[in-house]
Write a structure and sequence with these properties.
The chain is mainly α. It contains 5 helices and no strands.
Length: about 140
Amino acid sequence: LKRSMAPVVTHRGCRVGSFLLACASVGLSIFLVTTREIRYSPHELLPSSDSDGKGLELLFQVFPLLGSSIVFHDLDIPSHQADMIQLYKELLNSTHFAQGPFPNFVSLLAQDNQTVCDGRYTDAQMAPFGLVPAEHF
């Protein structure tokens, strides 16, 4: 092997050829992936009578990505709880937003701390227990 294959594999022409072959393979792969067409829609996987089919249709036709959550960064949560709930309610009233299976963060926080919640702000759907006062954070 050392005398027959090693000189062939380490020859400049073989190294350049294998590099060009690798570049061509990567280029061809990128071309095939970017020009690929999906010949079905995900909502077609469900029966037409299923209400989840419309949701999948909207998800993949209206939105290019899957849904996400609201993230509040560098926010003073104790003093902005009512604002957070109001923003969430406004999003729920839009046409392309649906409430998830779990309550929002502020509602869960108040539910876990019911004994300290005050009644200054209540909302039957979003904050049935009120809000946690800032001094209890």
